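Lab meeting, item 3. Inverse folding demo.
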């Protein structure tokens, strides 16, 4: 029905940051709170979808007990969980802020303070969204781009490289957009080059706008 436009659809969402362990007490992370992704999960559930939410470390609670919430720490764990479920879903939305690198070695004991300069060797993490982009069959695939410069150009590159239907651009140059805030300001860039700009809104309303575009693609 039009009240439940995602009935019988399965939606996978990644959310939150990843923590890349340096040793048992330290990590490399970022400022993602998970809010954007959890609002997407809540909105997809409210639209009738079966939702799998794969979340990095956050303080947020599962928006609904019917949502399958899988909590992970690192990019590698997020990669494992996401690729495990991707083939069974109709829609995947990558809103997580995944660390591009991880420490090559995670020390088993707390690293002791010693020399003035300490070097940490990093290795690249797999790109989860690009992996989905290569594997996709009929799924609708949506990514995010968090930019600080050359926003539209960078987002267009990610849309192409990761083989997405559309990419949601948010810029740290916009007040009230991006990490942590209750609000976000987005632009959506489609494969055909169309760019839709939205006003500053609550993340709940932004999630609804994104789902409306996805429902449009599913019904096209
Ligand atoms: O969690 P909040 O505090 O509410 O903040 C929301 C947000 C700012 C985190 C969110 O709106 C957002 O922009 N998420 C993507 C952040 C990001 O890491 O963007 P990126 O431009 O580095 O990555 C591009 C895309 O590839 C993203 O969809 C990302 O999930 C995905 N990616 C990136 C690297 C990687 N190794 N694997 C991935 O899947």
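The presenter then showed the designed sequence:
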């Amino acid at each position: 029905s039009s009240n439940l436009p995602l009935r019988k659809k399965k939606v996978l969402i990644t959310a939150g940051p990843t923590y890349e362990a340096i040793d048992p007490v330290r990590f490399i992370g970022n400022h993602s709170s998970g809010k954007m992704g959890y609002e997407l999960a809540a909105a997809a559930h409210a639209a009738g979808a079966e939702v799998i939410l794969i979340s990095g470390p956050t303080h947020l609670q599962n928006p609904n007990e019917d949502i399958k919430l899988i909590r992970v720490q690192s990019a590698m764990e997020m990669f494992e969980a996401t690729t495990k479920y991707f083939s069974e879903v109709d829609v995947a939305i990558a809103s997580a802020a995944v660390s591009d690198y991880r420490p090559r070695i995670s020390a088993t004991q707390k690293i002791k303070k010693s020399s003035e300069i300490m070097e940490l060797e990093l290795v690249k993490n797999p790109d989860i969204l690009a992996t989905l982009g290569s594997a996709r069959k009929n799924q609708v695939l949506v990514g995010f781009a968090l930019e600080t410069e050359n926003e539209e150009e960078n987002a267009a590159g990610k849309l192409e490289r990761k083989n997405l239907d559309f990419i949601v651009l948010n810029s740290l140059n916009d007040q009230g957009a991006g990490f942590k805030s209750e609000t976000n300001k987005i632009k959506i860039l489609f494969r055909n080059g169309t760019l839709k700009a939205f006003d500053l809104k609550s993340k709940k309303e932004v999630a609804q706008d994104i789902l409306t575009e996805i429902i449009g693609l599913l019904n096209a």
